[in-house]
Specification:
175 residues, alpha+beta, Defensin A-like, 4-stranded antiparallel sheet, 5 helices, 47% helix, PilN, transmembrane helix, membrane, transmembrane
C-alpha cells in the first residue's frame, strides 16, 4: 500500500483574488432583490387601493330625510356641549348623610336632561337630597321616577330625573 501525505498547512503567497469580486457581486444581488421586493409591495398596495375604490358603494344623493337626520345629529351635539363640569361640581357639593349618588345619565330626545341614580339609607334622607337638588343643584323639574326597597338591602335604590337649568349652571365658572 502506498503512503498518502496530507498537507493542510497554507503556504505563503497563495492569495485568492476571486473572493472580493464574488463578495461585491453577492452584495449587489441582495440590494437589487430588496429593491425589487419593495417595488412589488408598493404595486400590491396600489392595486389593493384601486380594488377597494371599485368595491366601495357609489355615493348616494341626499335623500328627503337628510334634514331630519341632521337635526337629530345637531340635537345630540348640543347635549355634549352642556356644562357637565359645572354640574358635577354642584352635585359634589350637595352632601346629605345617608345618600350616595352612583350614576349620572344624560337624557336626549323630547325632554333633555339627566337621570341621577343612587342609594339612600331611608326615605327622609332621599327626600332631603331631592329637595337640595332642586335648590342647589342647578337643575329644575327634579322628580323621583323609581324607588326600590329590597328585603336584604340596607337602603333604598332610587332613580331621579331632572332637566337642565341653563342659566344657573352655565353662568358659574368651574373651579
Amino acid at each position: 500500500m502506498a503512503k498518502i501525505e496530507l498537507d493542510f498547512i497554507r503556504r505563503p503567497g497563495g492569495v485568492s483574488w476571486i473572493g472580493a469580486p464574488l463578495l461585491l457581486a453577492g452584495l449587489g444581488l441582495v440590494v437589487m432583490a430588496t429593491m425589487r421586493l419593495a417595488e412589488l409591495d408598493a404595486q400590491q398596495e396600489r392595486i389593493t387601493g384601486q380594488m377597494w375604490k371599485l368595491q366601495a358603494p357609489a355615493e348616494t344623493s341626499p335623500s328627503s330625510d337628510a334634514p331630519e337626520a341632521l337635526a337629530a345629529a345637531d340635537k345630540l351635539a348640543r347635549q355634549f356641549r352642556r356644562p357637565w363640569g359645572a354640574l358635577f361640581v354642584r352635585l359634589e357639593k350637595i352632601e346629605v348623610k345617608g345618600v350616595r349618588l352612583s350614576q349620572i345619565l344624560p337624557q336626549t330626545g323630547s325632554n333633555p336632561g339627566v337621570q341621577l341614580g343612587g342609594e339612600a339609607e331611608n326615605n327622609t334622607a332621599l327626600y332631603d337630597y331631592l329637595r337640595r337638588l332642586r335648590q342647589e343643584g342647578g337643575l329644575r323639574d327634579v322628580h323621583l321616577i323609581q324607588q326600590n326597597t329590597e328585603e336584604n338591602a340596607k337602603g333604598i335604590k332610587f332613580l331621579a330625573q331632572a332637566r337642565w337649568s341653563e342659566g344657573q349652571i352655565a353662568t358659574e365658572p368651574t373651579p
